[in-house]
Amino acid sequence: MKLGYVELADDPRYANRGVLSGIVFTDLGRPYQGSQVALEDARAIGRVIGVEFSMEKSTASSDDELVQRISEWITNDGIHFVLADLPVAALKDLASRLADRPVLLFNISAPDDSLRGADCANNVAHTYPSEAMLSDALMQYLVAKGWLQILVLQGPAPEDAAMVAALQRSARKFRANIVATRPFLLTNNPRNREQTNIVLMTEGVGYDVVDVADISGEFGRYVSYETKLPRPVVGSAGLVPTAWSWSWGRDAAVQLQHRYEKVSPPRRMNGADWAAWEAVKAVTQAVMRTRSTDFDAVKTFLLSDKLTLDTVKGNPGSFRAWDHQLRAPVLLSTADAVIERAPLPQYLHQTNVLDTLGIDAPESACRF
Amino acid sequence: MKIAQTLGEVAVALDARFVTLILPTIVLGLVLSAEARAKDTGYVFVSNEKTNNIAVIDPKQDYKIIKWIPTSHRPRDMKFGDNHRLLYVACGDDDVIDVLDVATLKVADHIPTGPSPEMFQLSRDEKALYVSNEEGSSVQEISIVDKIILREIATGAEPEGLAISADGKTLYVTSEVTDMVHVVDAEGGVVTENIVVGTRPRRLLLLPGGKELWVSNELSGEVSVIDRAANRISTTIDFLPPGFRQVDVTPVGMTMTRDGKSAIVALGRANHVAFIDTATRKVEDYVLVGSRAWGVALSPDEKTLYVANGLSDDLSIVDMESRKAIRAVPVGRVPHSVVIDD
After folding, report:
1. Is the CB of A305 inside 8 Å of chain B's CB atoms?
2. Which residues from B are below 8 Å from A45, CB to CB?
3. I need a surface site. Which of A29, A204, B207, B281 has the fewest CB within 10 A?
4. Residues 108-147, chain B, touching A (beta carbon < 8 A)
5. What is the 3-state secondary structure (H, E, C) of chain A?
6. Cross-chain residue pair A259–B220, CB shorter than 8 Å
7. Using 50, 70 and 90 to split pLDDT, how confident is the model at B251?
8. Are residues B220 and A308, on separate chains, in Cβ contact within 8 Å?
9. How many Å apart are CA B254 and CA B297, to the nearest integer?
10. Quick check: A316 contacting B, CB < 8 Å?
C-alpha cells in the first residue's frame, strides 16, 4: 500500500522556515514528519495483516509538475491516496485537474472554508480543521466564559480576512458581538501609528476580549499585556484554537508527541503535523478494517461513518458526508498549556457533538 | 491491628506539631505489628498519577485514608507479590517499578524498567515481571531478584494491557496504536499470533476455564471476546448507559467475581460501570460513578466494588448487592488503579 505526499518548494506559508526575526519557533514548519510517525505505526500493522505500507514524496516547483507526478504515481505505482501540503489555490487546481483519476487527496494544512464549501471537490478529504471549526471552537469558549464583546485586530493578508469572516459567522452562531474591527499594519512608520500602536488600537471602545487575526505571526504575539484595557487576547495569539498543541496531555497525546520527537528532533508537533499523521492513520484503519488495498473499497470505508479514527483528543473522528471534513475536537491552547478542548460539554448536537464545530449539513454549500 | 488503628486515629486527631512529636511511636507501633498485619488488612490501595503517591484506605475505619505513601513519579498499575507482603507499583515517569513493603507501607526497593512502564504482570513463579513500556513499543521480562532485563519482546506502539495464562505459558499484550492483541509464547519470548480487535485496545481479562479472553476497546467503545483456542474474536459486547451516546463510551478497566459469572467494565467518559453476565454476555446494569472511570477492583468478600475516577480525583464505592454507588472518597490527583490487600 503506497501513499503519496506532495508539497511546493516555494510554498509562501513556509517562507520564514520557522524563524521570525532570527528566533526559531520549534513548532513552525512543514508537516511531513507527522506523516512519517503514522507510517511507522502503519508498518507495524502491515506486518500483521500482510500489507507493506510505504510513501513517495514529491517536492515540486509548480502545479503542473505535481499533476504530472501524481498521474505517474497512479499509473505506475498504484498510488491512490496522496497527502497534499498545499496552499488553497494549488489544492483547488490539483483537485480539478485530477477529478477523473482514481485518487483521493488529503488536505493536511489549508483551513480555507471555500475548500469545504462552494469550491469543494469530491476527491479531497480534509484532515486539517476548517477555519469555521477553529473559530467555532474559540467562540464556544468565549461565550461559555461570558466574554461576549469582542474587539478584532485584523492584519493585511487574505488569510487574516478569512479568519475575521469566520469569526463573524461564529459570533452570529453563538451570539457574541464584534464591537469593532481595526486593521493593523506591519511597519515602523510613525505616520501609521493608528495601525501599529497597540494601545491606540485598543482604546476608545469597551470589550471583553481582543481577537487578533494575524497569519504572519509577527504582530499577534506582542498584543498580550499591551492592550489599553486589561483583557485577554485570543485568535492568532494568546488563546489559539488549533488542531494540535505539544502541551496536550490527555488521551495518549504525550506518547504521540514523544514518537514525533523521536523522528523529528528538535521539532514539536503542530496542527498540520497532526493532520498529516491523521490522514495516514485514516488510510491504515480503512485498509485494516476492510482487509483490502483496493482503492474503491478503502475509499468507501474511509469516508463512511464506520471509520473510528483515534484523534488523540478524546472523541473518535470520521469524515462528514457533506463536505469530507474530518470531525475532530479542537484544542484551545496558549504557548504552553491547553486551556480547553472543544466542543465544550455545554454545546449539544442531535447526532454528534463534534458537529457543533464548523459547517453542519443543513448550512453546507458543498455539492459533490 | 487494634493498636495501629488507635494510633492512627490519635495522630489524625492531634495537630501537626504533636504528630511530629509522636511519629517515632507510630512507626514503632507499625513495625511491632508487622507480623500480625502481613495479611488480610483489607486495605484499599489507590495509585495517583499526578500526586506521585498511593492513598491507603481502611474500609473498616469508615474509608479513612490512613496513609499517603510517596512513590516514584506517575504510579499506575499495582500488583501484590510474595503472599501480599510486597506491592509492586509501575511508575511511568521514572522508568521504575517501586517495591512496597505492605507491612510498613513504605517503598522498600526499586526495579528499573524500559521507558514509561504502565501495566505489568508477575510471572506465575513470581521470579519475573512482564512490563509493557508504553513509549518503548515492547514488553520486557525483568528478573525481580537480579533486576536485569532478561528479554525484550517487540510489540506494536503503546503496548498496555497484559494477561498471563493460568499455566504461565502464554502472555497476551494489547497495542493501543496498532489495534491488536499480541499472543506471546512466554517461554520462547516470541509473538506467535496477532489478533486484530477494536480501536485502541486497553485492558485484558482472562475468564476462568481458559476459554475466553476479554479486551476492552477504548475508542470503539466495546469489549471483544476472544476465543483462545482459535485466537479470534467470537463476539463483541456493546455498551450504552442511559443518557449517553456511543462516542462517550470508552471502556478501560475490567474485573470479575471469583466464580467468573459476573464481569465489571469501567466505561471511562461515560462515567458508569457496566455489570455483565458472562454466560449470556448481556449487560445487566449500569452504575453511575465519577468522571472517567478506569481502575476497578472488588473487595475480598465481593460485597464492595471500588472504582478509580481519573478526572474527578475520587474513588467510588459501589455496593454490589444493590448495585449502587454509596459514596465517593477523595483521593490524589488522577487516580489510576485500585488493589485490595486480602
Report:
1. no
2. 156, 178-180
3. A204
4. 116, 134-135, 137
5. CEEEEEEECCCHHHCCCCEECCEECCCCCCCHHHHHHHHHHHHHHHHHHCCCCEEEEEEECCHHHHHHHHHHHHHHHCCCEEEEECCHHHHHHHHHHCCCCCCEEEECCCCCHHHHCCCCCCCEEECCCCHHHHHHHHHHHHHHHCCCEEEEEECCCHHHHHHHHHHHHHHHHHCCEEEEEEECCCCCCHHHHHHCCHHHHCCCCCCCEEEEECCCCCCHHHCCCCCCCCCCEEECCCEEEECCCCCCCCCCHHHHHHHHHHHCCCCCCCHHHHHHHHHHHHHHHHHHHHCCCCHHHHHHHHCCCCCCECCCCCCCEEECCCCCEEECCEEEECCCCEEEEECCCCCCCCCCHHHHCCCCHHHCCCCC
6. no
7. very high
8. yes
9. 8
10. yes
| Cβ <8 Å between A310 and B200 | yes
Contact (CB<8Å) A315/B180: no
Alpha-carbon distances of A316 from A280, A354, B76, B218, B268, rounded to whole Å: 15, 9, 25, 10, 14
8 Å CB contact between A294 and A52: no
If pLDDT is split at 50, 70 and 90, which confidence band does B90 have? Answer: very high
Amino acid at A317: G
Question: pLDDT tier at B39 (50, 70, 90 boundaries)?
Answer: low
Cell of A71: 498521474
Give the cell for residue B171: 502472555
A216 shares contact with chain B (CB less than 8 Å): no
CA pseudo-torsion sign B282, B288, B292, B296 = negative
Q: Do B196 and A49 touch (CB under 8 A)?
A: yes
Q: Which residues of A touch B175 (CB under 8 A)?
A: 44
pLDDT band at B68 (very low <50, low <70, confident <90, very high): very high
pLDDT computed for residue A331 by the predictor = 98
Which class for B174: exposed (0-12), middle (13-18), buried (19 or more C-beta within 10 A)?
Answer: buried
Residues 6 or more apart from B117 whose CB is under 8 A from it? B76, B77, B90, B91, B92, B95, B96, B97, B131, B132, B133, B134
Sign of CA dihedral A192, A193, A198, A200: negative
A44, A255, A352 member nearest B178 (Cβ): A44
Q: How sure is the predictor about B2, in pLDDT bands with cuts at 50, 70 and 90?
A: very low
Beta-carbon contacts of B79 under 8 Å, excluding residues fewer than 6 positions away, are: B87, B88, B120, B121, B122, B339
Indicate the SS3 state at residue B231.
coil
Q: Does A44 touch chain B (CB under 8 A)?
A: yes
Can you give the pTM of this predicted structure?
Answer: 0.85
Is B247 at the interface with chain A, CB within 8 A? Answer: yes
CB contact, 8 Å: A339 with chain B? no
* Element housing B135 (H / E): none
